[in-house]
Amino acid sequence: MDVRLTIAAACVCLTACTGPLVRPAVAPAAPRRDALLILPGVGYGRAGEETFRSLAESMGRDGVDLYVPAYVTRSGLAASRDRLERFIRAHRLDRYDRLHVFAFIAGAWVVNPLVERGALPNLTAVIYDRSPLQERAPRIADTQLHFLTWLRYGSTVFDLARTPYPPLAAPGVKVALMVETAPTSFIRRNAAAARRDGPLTFSCGSLHQRYDDCLYLPFNHGEVYARFAEVWPEVRAFIRDGRFSDAANRQPPDGDPLAPRRGR
Description:
Order of helices and strands: HEHEHEHEHHHEHHEHH
Strand order of the largest sheet: 2-1-3-4-5-6
Largest sheet: 6 strands, parallel
Number of domains: 1
CATH superfamily: Alpha/Beta hydrolase fold, catalytic domain
Structural class: alpha/beta
Number of helices: 11
Low-confidence stretches: 1-20
Distance between the termini: 34 Å
CATH topology: Rossmann fold
Mean pLDDT: 89
Shape: globular
CATH class: Alpha Beta
């Protein structure tokens, strides 16, 4: 019992300590014409925080102000959406000529309904981090680790598990997909449960989201956070040109990413 209480206390502490916020050090009176709003998902932690903070200055030199809000709540997707909308208003993101969004998985579920109801009138481009692998994690956490998941994250993970993806249909907004192709350790440990959701399909068209360009990342979900500096050049290309660079990998992966590793 003491061990369980210790675990519970640690989980609640971890939840309270997540959600760091990145924004320009001084809100400019005359902002740059472009802002990038990065929407981390559930489980965003120190590696992502350090990466985004380290990139903020170089993004500024590229003429883009970076904002990373602490918007995910324990109370579910609707409460997270309300918090994000307050952040957008408080930081006056409508001052920018062009607002771009990079949405991790939960970020897409939160922001798309806001866009559809006109809350981001200056939105120009959205880049989604999608994963046929990691998008199965909420259901696994809900059905197999329900209590511990609630301790750590509250009901937001359960909302993700039970809410179909709300596709963005807003006209005039450029849309890109970055598709993860490697499993996290969580998905690999729960490979049998992940397979129960059906065959893994990595084609861009299978993700139920219209898009103007799509590429494949050789990363798992955690690595996209930690190695975002490697992702940023393609994000920058898309928000500038409406397409990824010619060097982007547009070939879906071959083989089974959940197959046992050789030598294991």
